[in-house]
Amino acid sequence: MTEGHSPLRYVSTRGSGPVDFRAATLSGLAPDGGLFMPDRWPESEPLFRRTAGAGYVETAAHVLTRLGGDSLPIGASSELAADAYRTFLHPEVAPVRRLRDGLHLLELFHGPTLAFKDFALQVLARLFDRFLELDGRRALVLCATSGDTGAAAIEACRGRRAMAIVVLHPEARIAPLQRRLMTTVDDPAVFNVAIEGTFDSCQSLVKQAFADEVLRRECGLLAVNSINWSRIAAQAAYYVHAANRIGGPPPVFAVPSGNFGDCYAGHVAACMGLGVAGLIVGTNRNDILARFFETGRYHPGTVHRTLSPAMDIQVASNFERLLYEIRDREPDAVQRDMAGLARGQAICVTARERAETGKRFKGSMVTEDQTIHTMRDIRDLCGVQIDPHTAVGIAAARLAGALDRNYRATAAPVIALATAHPAKFPDAVRQALSEEPETPEPLARCMEAPERVTTLPADYTRLADHLRRAAAAAAPAP
Fold first, then answer.
1. Run of H or E including 440
2. How confident is the model over 220-260, as pLDDT tens digits?
3. What is residue 424's DSSP assignment?
4. How many contiguous H segments (helices) and E segments (strands) does the chain have?
5. 300 phi and psi, to 5 degrees?
6. pLDDT per residue over 156-187, tens digit each?
7. Which of 117, 207, 362, 424 is catalytic?
8. What structural domains and CATH numbers belong to the chain?
9. 59 — phi, psi (to 5°)?
10. Active site residue 117
11. Farthest-apart Cα atoms in the chain, separation
12. Where would I find the H helices in 247-329?
């Protein structure tokens, strides 16, 4: 805590609060349906300079402490970060690889489920453990996944005394390897549910569950989706780490985006004082974010299946956090916007608001052909396989003018976030490269194991009944 400042507190984008970091973590979604935000940005530029030569664990611990306030002192965050990242497969945790002049790849796929979600969820599960133990309570973790979140959440939460977990995924709409990383986990406190609908259907059901105060208390629901602020806090650390690793002028980050949480974490790091030249928001055909940054109009369209299924989303749940800032932190304005969106109306910002937002964010929609060509180009030019989501981010940087046609930076250095191992999307790799990706051991194991999954319609009453049964089945024997 900075001398002379009150402790950092969290408020809802729709007006409730303030609460401390611990309460925001355990609540996930605010009681009024909004998302938690810090009541101010902790200024950390001197801290970022001090961590320039630090390893990933030390950097993460300092970022978490700055955002955790009095709920997470540096000793606790250092111990937590060391434990969270000890099983990662690369000694640097998040290595930064130079691909071309001014183009760098931040490899975020060395965790236990080979995706960037491991960085946040390994931390979040340990925060839950710490805070639940202090409260002497047990909880049921609930989340929706469009691909990687579910496996990462299960891997982080399995085997923990105070938690069971239920994960919703859209039936037949995620990659087979992503599904099997979840459904082959043999643990009595892990429950997988295939929802007959899209990811947006799953996300809507999760929000309904957290808005149901009776069910929430009865089951002790906890949120691990990126609506939980602690995930954003944990992800902000790798932006600091990557910028420190390459040194030099502030970089542009190219981020494949669906729910907008990953990209928003880069914005958080910038608001805390990290030098960031820009954030490029790459979308596939499901381009609600790219359209917003281009036109200032936010309105969901039809969900389309693509080669990058984790981004097949038309309602970006973390957009509300940015909207709160665009509306000058006026919760009444956010409530009106979100109520209108629920009625099918578009959210529109003024020309001034759009221009201000455009100082940091640019959005680009990437076609399927552009995704394939980018995967092929990076393999041919750099000798590196990338997954289709990473390709969307790099292609978006070209479309935004941050990279030239030969993938060299045109001005500021570009750091592209590699969000998943290419082996998680073998069909896309075969289509783009006419070759097989190398299959890491965790993926090979899950292809042989039996699956455990329940299929439900996109009906809240049916889901609520299932959650009650899951909570009862996973409760420890007296």
1. none
2. 999 888 889 999 999 999 999 999 999 999 999 999 999 99
3. G
4. 20, 15
5. -65, 145
6. 999 888 889 999 999 988 888 889 999 999 99
7. 117
8. 96-114+229-433 (3.40.50.1100)
9. -60, -45
10. yes
11. 65
12. 261-271, 288-295, 319-326
